[in-house]
Amino acid sequence: MPQQLLKGNVAFAEAAVRAGCEAYFGYPITPQTELLEHMSKRMVELGRVFLQAESEVAAINMVYGAAAAGARVMTSSSSPGISLMQEGFSYIAGSEVPVVVVDVVRGGPGLGNIQPSQSDYNQVTKTAGHGDFHPIVLAPSTVQEAIDLTVLAFDLADKYRTLVIVVADGAIGQMMEPAEFPPMQPLAKRPAWALTGAEGREKNLVSSIYLGANNLEAFNQKLQRKLAAIAANEVRYDEAYVDDADVLLVAFGTAARVARTAVQRLRKEGLRVGLLRPVTLWPFPEERLIELADRSKAILVVEMNAGQMLQDVRAAVGRQVPIQFLGRMGGAIPMPEDVEEEVRNLLAKLPKPSEVPVLEGHNGHLSN
Prior knowledge:
7-stranded mixed sheet; alpha/beta; globular; 5-stranded mixed sheet; Rossmann fold; 18% strand
């Protein structure tokens, strides 16, 4: 199919349709409402289920029910709406049903504003409901990736029977770029574990209740084994100019687009700067980051928040190299000039080669 000029929110929605999404439940909230609007048209055209729920709480519980029945199901929202869905996320994790959620992030906390932000990083990678679990979190930085990662999200959700969140700041939801859709997939068959109401087989049960500490601990141990398998096999990242980088930039989403422009400009000046862009925010590409930190003299983390991914970078790298942070909050987007200035300041602070202590390298294993 040839490329089309597509808005990010429409790209998310049509990609879900083509990935075989059978049911969508949601509630309008800026800056993702175009996604819901597109689904309201396309799902009805195809004879699939679309329902605008009375709230985000209602929507996520409808999603939970459809997922338990074995449907490929999705919802979408923005930051305050995602906060309301947290309990439902935990039920979904506890019941091991596959669900896809698109979070188009706005400024916070509270109602905040409708400007683009990355302030949901902790919400989707660390909390996402109570209990010891992580959703898989995918972070596109282009409209084409919005399509590709949404299709991937459905496949990963089914593969691991888990919650997958595609998280993008509002700029990606609202921007328009040339992109290409995949062909329409056929609807999937109902999995054997689903609540289909069929006769002539053993009764299925989908539940997140495990009475007794021993029973719940056994389930949690099983869940941790699944999360370990995801962490070993589903790490994804993109990188540029990292082989000889003195300063390594780490950024995702729109911040990574800005950082890439800054890297290209600085390279033209002869400055050795590279970029690591996590595509999976969970599992986080910490082993690749450790490997690149061994080669670099400093790291600059660029985010549209107060430093949420920064904590994961620090946890991975420790005191291996100096780490500096550039962040904008409340819907403000850093500009390439801001990143370039930070890089120059960072390079100026670094010790000269004769002053650099010898550090023993870290042998990390790279998972792709």
